[in-house]
Specification:
Strand order of the largest sheet: 1-3-2-4-13-5
Mean pLDDT: 91
Distance between the termini: 42 Å
Oligomer: single chain
Structural class: alpha/beta
Helix content: 40-55%
Largest sheet: 6 strands, mixed
Number of helices: 18
């Protein structure tokens, strides 16, 4: 298992130089050039949002498509993944959808969204003995989010405002007003121990940290995000324009492999849990049992029982705890851009309110690769009912109650 947290700069330089020397000696001339042209490096956080990338590697889909992908490199925080991606250490990665919005439109970084990596896959989690039952109970509480630029932060604030509460960012706040909900940033892996130690009152994050907290720390799911925004995107597949331009063939092959992996995950949920777990190929540092809870643990008897509000308020939506489909619907991108303009974040964010959502969505998303990959995988019927009349559009369904 490879992990990036912090690596000594001299060591990195040495490894890079050593790798270059070995590459030159083992793959002379045009052989080395061809290999480099077909090689893509991938980074990921240990969250199930990354499952299609990891399954594509584990099952050899990348190799079968003809692209060279070394074992993906695990990092511990969104900051590290973002910095590594921008530094060119990773050619392809998954990323919280609002982060590429921030990259491209605030910092003019040439990032492109190529596909969705998954749908749903997150929840608001609180302590098992907590009095918090729903959004109305969050007043005066502190809730952790994984990034200011995250679907999690956006959805959490939708629920907070719906109940007449005010999201605030007050580091170290001790005396919150009853109508205030204090938000802070924590890396996903830090959230369960912070909740257990009562340093926070709850968190909203991707799996498997909600399932892990349920099974190991007696925590409780307050609400699944897929029950608020039906089949919403969260992490997306991203690359930089320079990589897309120089390695277009390899990028297409990689997207083909990821789309195949999404279809496989939908059809083989328990097997996916095993492969990804530390009991399988070790992409995640959690047990198969925890991941099985993520892939198969959307039990209506558990989550729709008891007084309202409940973890699942819309069983008729027939969604999964985590789902997999690749097409980046334009309406969803527009909705995220529009809602992020209303979402509290740390730092200057007026650029969001100046964006034209439709135009920004066109500029940010390149769906050409994923359309070819979906066609190769059998068409939209592989992921949706084949009777869909408009496969490239959908209605966004959002309901707090």
């Amino acid at each position: 298992m490879t992990v990036i947290d912090s690596v000594d700069t001299d060591k990195r330089r040495f490894l890079k130089q050593t790798g270059s020397f070995l590459g030159a000696s083992l793959f002379p001339g045009n052989v080395l050039a061809a290999r480099m042209q077909s090689t893509l490096n991938i980074g990921y956080l240990p969250i199930t949002d990354a499952a299609p990338l990891l399954i594509a590697h584990a099952l050899g889909f990348f190799s079968e498509e003809g692209v060279v992908v070394p074992r993906p490199v695990m990092v511990r925080s969104w900051n590290v993944l973002t910095e590594s991606f921008l530094a060119g250490k990773f050619d392809l990665t998954h990323m919280l959808f609002p982060i590429p919005v921030w990259m491209r439109f605030k910092h003019k970084m040439p990032v492109k969204v190529l596909a969705w990596d998954h749908t749903n896959g997150s929840a608001v989690t609180v302590g098992g003995d907590s009095s918090i039952k729903g959004f109305a109970d969050l007043g005066g509480k502190t809730i952790a989010v994984p990034s200011w630029y995250s679907t999690h932060n956006m959805i959490l604030q939708l629920g907070i405002r719906e109940r007449g509460l005010t999201p605030v960012i007050k580091p170290g706040a001790r005396n919150l007003e009853l109508h205030e909900v204090n938000l802070l940033i924590l890396a996903p892996s830090e959230m369960p121990p912070a909740l257990l130690g009562k340093k926070i009152d709850g968190f909203i994050v991707a799996e498997p940290f909600n399932a892990l907290s349920e099974l190991k720390f007696n925590a409780r799911i307050m609400r699944f995000t897929g029950d608020i925004w039906k089949n919403h995107p969260c992490c997306v597949l991203v690359s930089q324009e320079s990589v897309i331009r120089k390695k277009a063939v390899a990028v297409q092959k990689a997207v083909n492999a990821v789309v195949r992996a999404q279809a496989w995950c939908e059809a083989n949920r328990e097997k996916a849990a095993h492969v990804l777990s530390r009991d399988g190929q070790g992409y995640f540092p959690v047990t198969e049992g925890v991941l099985r809870r993520v892939f198969t643990g959307y039990d209506f008897k558990v989550y729709t029982s008891g007084p309202r509000p409940r973890a699942v308020m819309h069983p008729q939506w027939d969604v999964s705890r985590i789902g997999f489909q690749p097409y980046p619907f334009h309406s969803s991108t527009e909705y995220i851009i529009r809602q992020m303009g209303k979402t509290e974040v740390e730092g200057e964010s007026s650029f969001l309110r100046r964006l034209d959502p439709a135009g920004a969505a066109d500029e940010l998303v390149d769906d050409g690769f994923v359309l070819k990959a979906i066609d190769q995988a059998g068409g939209f019927g592989t992921f949706y009912a084949s009777t869909m009349e408009k496969p490239f559009s959908r209605e966004e369904v959002i309901a707090i109650n």
